[in-house]
């Protein structure tokens, strides 16, 4: 039993925190969000130099072969700083390529990704899929030794910034497969937008996009298990990110209670507010415990069901905690909490989206219950 | 980071689990599982079984019978007892009066009382709350006036748990009503419950059970040698007790057992021909409490890990365990009752005792009273609102 980060993990977390304090404070972040690209090339280069991009990449391909526990401290710091760079989609992509990619794909992608020269995005969600990872209407039709992909993907996180998309498409009635597609390939159209939590995403239309047979990632019809594992891994990561964002919201709220005066006294002297603040603090601690469980089981579950059960349990708690803490943080800040001017309103936006990303509490309650 | 116990800790857990399996008498196990009232003999029988094994007071210093276990072992032991469903160890002697005597008592007091507490010869109760002094304990009014080598005590205590079983009571009394601060002028006294002038009156709880009492003192003569620490320093003693290590506060082992029971019980209840476990609305509530319990267990282990590293007592963290632990216990008892739906209504047969009726499901009839009884958990031992005040002040600095 040991709940501390290892020395290496702590050093990395400290350096990420220092970077955020120095180069990625609230003002710096505002400029990045308002920029044309919506992300910072400088920050991305720094992530590569710090080894963050190589963290999820296997050692054979120039990375560090880190698991969810290694990424946890980084994600927590990113949550605290509300980092908007497309780190999560890139890690998701790296995970799939590292697990199932052909040697040639791994060689072409993973070192480039670790060095910051390439970004990935997972194009999976569709209009009617909701959180059901098995639901894929996009089709892949065999054609001239390759495939023609057609369909529409929604809310592809990081799509406008990605060099390559990992696209899921049905290859038979029994299942779907994953394909590597250049974002700029003929027939691919990315309709880019900002998300509510100030990241970049897009809807991706695929109109008879031709890929050759080397574009297939993993075995034919075996996409579901790959996506499911990678999404569970990413869910553990956003649980850790949520911990950081909740801490940011709680710290800001506590500070506000101590400094904001009404009726001649700090509003933190009012018991009605004190007890709500205590409940936010307790919730954040309970959520942290579940984020630890999620990361630990993402790395070393005894089997897929053990992993699914722990990840769902964690996401139920995190989703509930995200809603409670983001809502209460705004309420206790009063009118100021409603404005864009305070960081807490941006934490609200990210927490609100994390609550629903990769499955809301209702979705995970269903999955958790089905596992007994 | 590693969430699991070490091989040594697992071996310890297995040793405790194995011993409990072999030594917890079946009749006591059944009574606890079926929420039956435990008699004085039931409680003391279990106390003495543990005393004989040497496990009744793990946290005491070794010279008085402590086991020398570290915080993690003590936690594992408490949780395994909860998980096995042992009768509770009544805390008033073992984990309240004794730690006070060990810290503040004279050698004579230690020699006189500690072995008898250890062996279960004296049954203790606690005289803190008064009708006008609940959460605001420092306002207490029971008065002790020194007359020669005695104090003469007059006043009233309330919520005195198991006073009707007790041989002794430790009390906070006011020895000086002129002090500038209310916390001063309070003293910590030990009385023999057989002393003339003590009257115990039952307070029957909303489930029909007799756990708590009112205790009246009418010119009760308490020898001066039964004063613990200095006269007027009782508040220091009381505060020490509040901060005393209680890592089992979350009652996680017991709640895990209740959760397993709830799942089995709900699976056997039908709605539209299907198990209640398949009822989405019920199932969501059950899943949420299970997730809270998973989180609380890890939170508790995190605190233990911190304590082990820092060597510091848990402080205000115990308040968090108390709040979440009691909320979970209440929810579990509520879901047990909800699982049977309309069948939760029968309470007692009219014309015969429960035991004499084989057509009456005493267990199902215990679920609503049990739900009612568990409402006490967020009120006793410092209400959950007081616990929030503690975290607000100590942890958050508000």
Written description of the protein model:
The complex is a heterodimer of chains A (372) and B (398). Chain A is α+β, with helices and mostly antiparallel strands and 372 residues long. Chain A has 11 helices and 10 strands. Chain A has a 4-stranded mixed beta sheet, with helices on one face. The mean pLDDT of chain A is 97. Chain B folds into 3 domains: 7-89, no CATH class; 124-233, Butyryl-CoA Dehydrogenase, subunit A, domain 2 (Beta Barrel); 245-395, Butyryl-CoA Dehydrogenase, subunit A, domain 3 (Up-down Bundle). Chain B has helices spanning 7-23, 26-33, 40-53, 71-84, 91-104, 107-118, 234-242, 252-267, 280-310, 317-339, 362-365, 367-374, 384-395, and strands at residues 124-127, 143-147, 150-158, 168-174, 186-192, 198-204, 210-223, 227-228, 270-271, 274-275. The chains are: A alpha+beta (372), B alpha+beta (398). At the A-B interface, helix 7, helix 8, helix 9 and helix 11 of A face helix 9, helix 10 and helix 13 of B.
Distance between the termini of chain B: 32 Å
Number of strands of chain A: 10
The geometry of chain A reads as globular
**Share of helix among residues of chain B?**
40-55%
How much helicity do the residues of chain A have?
40-55%
**From N to C, what is the helix and strand string of chain A?**
HHHHHHEEEEEEEEHEEHHHH
The CATH topology of the largest domain in chain A: Butyryl-CoA Dehydrogenase, subunit A, domain 3
The chain-level mean pLDDT of chain A equals 97
- CATH 4th-level superfamily of the largest domain in chain A: Butyryl-CoA Dehydrogenase, subunit A, domain 3
Number of domains of chain A: 3
């Amino acid at each position: 039993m040991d709940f501390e980060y290892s020395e290496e993990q702590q050093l990395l977390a400290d350096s990420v925190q220092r970077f955020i304090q120095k180069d990625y404070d609230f003002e710096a972040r505002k400029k990045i969000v308002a920029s044309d690209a919506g992300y910072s090339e400088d920050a991305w280069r720094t992530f590569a130099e710090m080894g963050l991009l190589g963290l999820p990449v296997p050692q054979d391909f120039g990375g560090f072969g880190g698991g969810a526990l290694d990424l946890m401290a980084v994600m927590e710091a990113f949550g605290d700083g509300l980092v908007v760079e497309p780190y999560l989609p890139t890690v998701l992509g790296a995970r799939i390529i590292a697990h199932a990619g052909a040697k040639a794909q791994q060689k072409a992608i993973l070192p480039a990704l670790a060095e910051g020269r390439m970004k990935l995005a997972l194009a999976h969600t569709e209009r009617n899929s909701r959180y059901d990872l098995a639901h894929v209407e996009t089709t892949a039709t065999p054609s001239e030794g390759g495939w023609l992909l057609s369909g529409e993907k929604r809310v592809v996180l990081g799509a406008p910034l990605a060099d390559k998309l990992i696209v899921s498409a049905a290859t038979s009635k029994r299942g779907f497969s994953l394909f590597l597609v250049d974002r700029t390939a003929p027939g691919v159209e990315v309709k880019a937008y900002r998300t509510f939590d100030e990241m970049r995403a897009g809807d991706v239309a695929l109109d008879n996009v031709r890929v050759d047979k080397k574009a297939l990632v993993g075995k034919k019809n075996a996409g579901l298990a790959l996506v499911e594992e990678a999404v569970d891994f990413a869910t553990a990561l956003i649980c850790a990110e949520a911990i950081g964002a909740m801490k940011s919201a709680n710290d800001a709220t506590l500070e506000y209670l101590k400094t904001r005066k009404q009726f001649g006294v700090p509003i933190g002297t009012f018991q009605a507010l004190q007890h709500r603040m205590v409940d936010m603090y307790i919730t954040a601690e309970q959520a942290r415990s579940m984020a630890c469980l999620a990361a630990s089981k993402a790395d070393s579950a005894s089997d897929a069901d053990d992993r699914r059960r722990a990840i769902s349990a964690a996401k139920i708690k995190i989703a509930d905690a995200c809603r409670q803490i983001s809502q209460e943080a705004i309420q206790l800040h009063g009118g100021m909490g409603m404005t864009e001017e305070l960081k807490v309103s941006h934490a609200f936006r990210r927490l609100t989206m994390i609550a629903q990303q990769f499955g809301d509490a209702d979705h995970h309650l269903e999955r958790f219950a089905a596992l007994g | 980071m590693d969430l699991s116990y070490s091989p040594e800790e697992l071996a310890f857990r297995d040793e405790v689990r194995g011993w409990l399996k072999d030594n917890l008498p079946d009749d006591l196990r059944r009574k606890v599982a079926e929420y039956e009232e435990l008699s004085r003999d039931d409680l003391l029988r279990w106390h003495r079984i543990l005393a004989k094994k040497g496990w009744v007071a793990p946290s005491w210093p070794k010279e008085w019978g402590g086991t020398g276990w570290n915080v993690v072992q003590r936690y594992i032991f408490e949780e395994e007892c909860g998980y096995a469903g042992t009768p509770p160890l009544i805390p008033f002697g073992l984990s309240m009066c004794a730690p006070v005597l060990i810290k503040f008592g004279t050698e004579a007091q230690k020699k006189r009382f500690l072995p008898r507490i250890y062996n279960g010869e004296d049954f203790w109760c606690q005289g803190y709350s008064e009708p006008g002094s609940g959460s605001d304990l420092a306002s207490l009014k029971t008065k002790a006036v020194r007359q020669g080598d005695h104090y003469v005590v007059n006043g009233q205590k309330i919520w005195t748990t198991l006073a009707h079983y007790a041989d002794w009571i430790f009390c906070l009394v006011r020895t000086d009503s002129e002090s500038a601060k209310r916390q001063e002028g309070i003293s910590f006294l030990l009385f023999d419950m057989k002393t003339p002038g003590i009257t115990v009156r039952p307070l029957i709880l909303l489930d029909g059970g007799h756990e708590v009492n009112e205790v009246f003192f009418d010119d009760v003569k308490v020898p001066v040698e039964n004063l613990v620490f200095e006269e007027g320093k009782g508040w220091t003693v009381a505060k020490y007790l509040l901060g005393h290590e209680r890592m089992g506060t979350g009652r996680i082992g017991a709640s895990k057992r209740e959760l397993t029971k709830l799942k089995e019980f709900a699976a056997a209840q039908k709605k539209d021909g299907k198990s209640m476990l398949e009822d989405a609305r019920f199932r969501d509530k059950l899943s949420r409490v299970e997730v809270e319990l998973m989180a609380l267990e890890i939170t508790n282990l995190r605190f233990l890990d911190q304590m082990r590293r820092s060597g510091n007592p848990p402080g205000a963290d115990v308040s968090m365990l108390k709040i979440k632990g009691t909320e979970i216990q209440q929810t579990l008892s509520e879901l047990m009752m909800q699982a049977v739906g309309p069948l939760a209504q029968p309470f007692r047969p009219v014309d015969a005792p429960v035991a004499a009726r084989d057509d009456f499901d005493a267990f199902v009839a215990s679920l609503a009273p049990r739900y009612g009884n568990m409402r006490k958990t967020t009120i006793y031992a410092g209400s959950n609102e007081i616990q929030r005040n503690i975290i607000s002040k100590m942890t958050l600095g508000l």
